[in-house]
Amino acid sequence: MPVLLLLLGGCGQAPSAEPATAAHTSTSERPPVAWTGLAALDPCTLLDPQDRSTAGIGVLGKPKDIGGARACDWSVPGTFGVTLTLSDTDGLADLEVAKKTATKTKVGAHPALRVADKKAADGTCAVLIGVGDGASVQIDVSNTGFSDTPLACRRAGTVAGLVEPKLP
Fold first, then answer.
1. Which is nearest to 80 in space by CA: 101, 58, 65, 47?
2. Buried/exposed 3-21: b ≥16 CB within 10 Å, e otherwise
3. What is the per-residue pLDDT across 105-164, written as a single tens digit (0 to 9) for each?
4. In this predicted model, which residue has the larger pLDDT, 156 or 32?
5. In the chain, what is the straight-line distance between the N-terminal and C-terminal CA atoms, in Å?
6. CA-CA distance, 54 to 30, in Å (whole number)?
7. How far is residue 81 from each of residues 36, 72, 161, measured CA to CA in Å?
C-alpha cells in the first residue's frame, strides 16, 4: 500500500515551516487547480466539534505537512489516529495505489477509493476522495495496536462522510 505507507510514515514528524509567499501575485501565477477550492480549505477545520464527537475524536487536530501537502492529524490516545490530507495537485488517477487493496466507491457526490490490505490485517484503512480531476482528499486511519482493519475502515468511512459535504 504505497499511499498508506507514505502518509503513515510521515506521522510524528514536526511540521515544516510554511513557505514564504511571493511579494506579487497575478492571475497567471495562481495554482493551476485553484478552481477545486481545496486551496482555500484548512484541513484542521474540516472536522468541527460536532463532527469530531460523531467520529469519536475528542482531541484537536494538529496541522502538518506531508510531502508538500497540507494535512491535519488527530491522535486519540490508546485508540486510533486520523490524518486528513488535502492534495491540490493529485487526483484519484494520479495516486499510487495497489489495485489489489483498492475498492472503487462514492462518498456523497464524489468518486472515491477505499484502500485497505485485508491480508495484512494491520489496522489501517484510507478513503481517498476525488475532487475534480486534479485534486483529492485522503483520510487515513490507524488503530492503536495495528489491528482490526474493518474497524479502521468504518472509522475512515465515518470521517469521509463528515468531510465530503464541505468539499467543492
1. 58
2. bbebbbebeeeeeeeeeee
3. 999 999 999 999 988 889 999 999 999 889 999 999 999 999 999 999 999 999 999 999
4. 156
5. 27
6. 36
7. 27, 11, 17
Copy the grid coordinates of residue 148: 482490526
24: buried, middle or exposed (CB in 10 Å: 19+, 13-18, 0-12)? exposed
Band (pLDDT 50/70/90 cuts) for residue 97 is confident
110 by DSSP, 3-state: which?
strand
Residues present in the chain in total: 168
> Grid coordinates standing for 1?
500500500
Q: How far is CA 42 from CA 58, 89, 93, 125, 147, in A?
A: 19, 16, 23, 22, 30
Q: Helix, strand or coil for residue 138?
A: strand
Query: DSSP labels for 20-72?
Result: PPPS---GGGS-TTGGGSGGG--GGGSS-HHHHHHHT--S--EEEEETTEEEE
Q: Cell numbers at residue 38, please?
A: 481545496
Question: Tell me, what amino acid is at 87?
Answer: S
Q: What is residue 13's predicted lDDT score, i.e. its pLDDT? A: 33
User: Any idea which residue has 483529492 for its cell?
Assistant: 136
- pTM (2 decimals)? 0.78
Contact present, 112 and 102 (Cβ < 8 Å):
no
The whole-angstrom separation of Cα 33 and Cα 80 is: 32
For cell 466507491, the residue is 105
